[in-house]
């Protein structure tokens, strides 16, 4: 299937509309970097219309005041509608982002799961009460926060959009989504899905466009009390500054440079499988990628050699080919940036043991052979900066203390991975690594009830399970006297 819209439009108040000033930008196909469609480029005026539609839907109901069970029925219908077109969504995602089709299918399935999961969470959510018998009853109810602004990145766009849409809708918010401008295609499936599921017009809106215009206007809009953002740390800081003007609620899921600690007593085969998958799946364009592998010196040379050998065998190819393991990076600018890091690493004296080259037969697209740098030191830029591609750094360590110090020698703190046969040490190190999430003798398996997010420069706040519901709702505490009230008598 290759029939794509000629123009990807906004979706405002239940209507597909172009930008008010008619502007649009090209969208490139990452395998050959030619434009294959255009996306509407929204400005402040388009954002204002979308926020007005969302606000109207919030104020006139029924969405925010609907019984949670009824909203859950609609969320499950959204999941059904995603599943019914899962193959098409995956095909669009692979075409638009360069993600391998088999992995894009997994992401589409996870998108449906996001809606089913939050349907369950919201039905199971209750209010809180704190009673002091005979004296006081304090109860807490939660109200949807209002019009939510959701701003999402280009890696796994559909999954990450739904990771925010599902809890925002479950909570009773109405919303405006601003997808990433490099990957708008899969979001164009959402209006049909929402209509088919019975989401009332105005509850769900999309404004496309470039971050500094459409995204910035959403952050600046006074009628949007919350911004949930996933993207780069630098962008997160800009958004925080701008959101400070209206004291907005913020959730920030930002970048990472996550360490994988491999101790000599670990199951080295499992650690190797996890290390290879952790950096090369999703083209390495993954926030939780294990991009720094720290290996105990006694197994360092052997582990590095095996890692390089596996990297050399990873199948780089066209995203639509089911045999492909690493596809094309999102955009020529990003590709150039990742290639720059290959040059930087070499220039800094790191030892290139695999990849580092654009496969000749795929020239013209944003391809890169899986790349492994060994002997990387904490002084090097490739150790410190998020590359966000199929490039991994390997560094030796001698002691547990040194391993932890190296793991933490970064401004980021999103995820960590620890491999050891000594469980006491495993728990000790798991506690000492500075990260919001840590996998011990496990690869990146997610339980959607758990808090997802990072510390340090990797973000603020958590999403997942009740943490997402907390984010999209405001608590209201009511204090009730149960007995006689003894108010101090001033001025009596
Ligand atoms: N922690 C997580 O959960 C997580 C998940 C996925 C990706 N990421 C991070 O995302 C980054 C890659 O995504 P990206 O390059 O699309 O990020 P980005 O920050 O460039 O863009 C993200 C979104 O923000 C918008 N934007 C850009 N400038 C803006 C501004 N001034 N105001 C408002 N919106 C603006 C963009 O249009 C896009 O929709 C990586 O750093 C990656 O680690 C983090
Ligand atoms: O690239 C970032 C991946 C983020 C993953 C999630 O938000 C998730 O698994 O819920």
From TrEMBL:
SUPFAM superfamilies, alphabetized: ALDH-like (SSF53720)
Active site: 253
Molecular function GO terms recorded: 5-carboxymethyl-2-hydroxymuconic-semialdehyde dehydrogenase activity
Name by which UniProt lists this protein: 5-carboxymethyl-2-hydroxymuconic-semialdehyde dehydrogenase
Organism (species): Streptosporangium becharense
Family designation: Belongs to the aldehyde dehydrogenase family.
Enzyme class (EC, first level): oxidoreductase
Keyword Nucleotide-binding annotated: no
Keyword list, A-Z: NAD, Oxidoreductase
EC number(s) given by UniProt: 1.2.1.60
């Amino acid at each position: 299937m290759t029939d794509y819209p000629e123009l990807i439009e906004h979706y405002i108040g239940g209507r597909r509309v172009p930008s008010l000033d008619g502007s649009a930008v090209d969208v490139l196909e990452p395998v050959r970097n030619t434009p294959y469609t255009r996306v509407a480029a929204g400005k402040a005026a388009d954002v204002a219309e979308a926020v007005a539609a969302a606000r109207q839907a919030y104020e006139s109901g029924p969405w925010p005041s609907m019984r949670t069970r009824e909203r859950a029925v609609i969320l499950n219908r959204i999941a059904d509608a995603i599943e019914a077109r899962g193959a098409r969504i995956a095909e669009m995602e692979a075409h638009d982002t360069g993600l391998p089709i088999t992995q894009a299918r997994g992401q589409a399935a996870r998108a449906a799961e996001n809606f089913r999961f939050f349907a369950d969470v919201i039905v199971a959510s209750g209010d809180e009460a704190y009673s002091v018998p005979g004296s006081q009853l304090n109860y807490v109810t939660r109200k949807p926060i209002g019009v939510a602004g959701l701003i999402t990145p280009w890696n796994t766009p559909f999954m990450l959009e739904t990771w925010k849409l599902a809890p925002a809708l479950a909570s009773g918010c109405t919303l405006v989504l601003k997808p990433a401008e490099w990957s708008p295609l899969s979001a164009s499936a959402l209006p049909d899905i929402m209509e088919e599921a019975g989401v009332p017009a105005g509850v769900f809106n999309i404004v496309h466009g470039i971050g500094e215009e459409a995204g910035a206007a959403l952050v600046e809009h006074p009628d949007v009390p919350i911004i949930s953002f996933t993207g780069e740390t630098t962008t997160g800081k800009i958004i925080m500054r701008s959101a400070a003007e209206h004291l907005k609620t913020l959730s920030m899921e930002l970048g990472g440079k996550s360490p994988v600690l491999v101790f000599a007593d670990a199951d080295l085969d499992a650690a190797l499988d996890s290390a290879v998958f952790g950096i090369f799946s999703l083209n390495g364009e993954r926030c939780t990628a294990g991009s720094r592998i720290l290996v105990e010196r006694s197994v360092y040379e052997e582990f590095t050699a095996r890692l390089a050998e596996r990297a050399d065998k990873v199948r780089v190819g066209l995203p639509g080919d089911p045999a492909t393991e690493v596809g094309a990076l999102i955009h020529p600018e990003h590709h150039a940036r990742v290639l720059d890091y290959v040059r930087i690493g070499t220039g800094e004296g790191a030892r290139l043991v695999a990849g580092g080259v654009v496969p000749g037969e795929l020239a013209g697209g944003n391809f890169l052979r899986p790349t492994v740098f060994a002997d990387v030191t904490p002084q090097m830029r490739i150790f410190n900066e998020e590359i966000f591609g199929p490039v991994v750094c390997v560094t030796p360590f001698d002691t547990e203390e040194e391993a932890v110090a190296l793991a933490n020698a970064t401004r980021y703190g999103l995820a960590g991975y620890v491999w050891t046969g000594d469980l006491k040490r495993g728990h000790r190190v798991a506690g000492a690594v500075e990260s919001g999430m840590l996998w011990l003798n496990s690869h990146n398996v997610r339980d959607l009830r758990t808090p997802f997010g990072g510390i340090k420069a990797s973000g603020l706040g958590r999403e997942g399970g009740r943490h997402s519901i907390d984010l999209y709702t405001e608590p209201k505490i009511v204090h009730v006297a149960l007995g006689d009230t003894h108010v101090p008598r001033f001025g009596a």
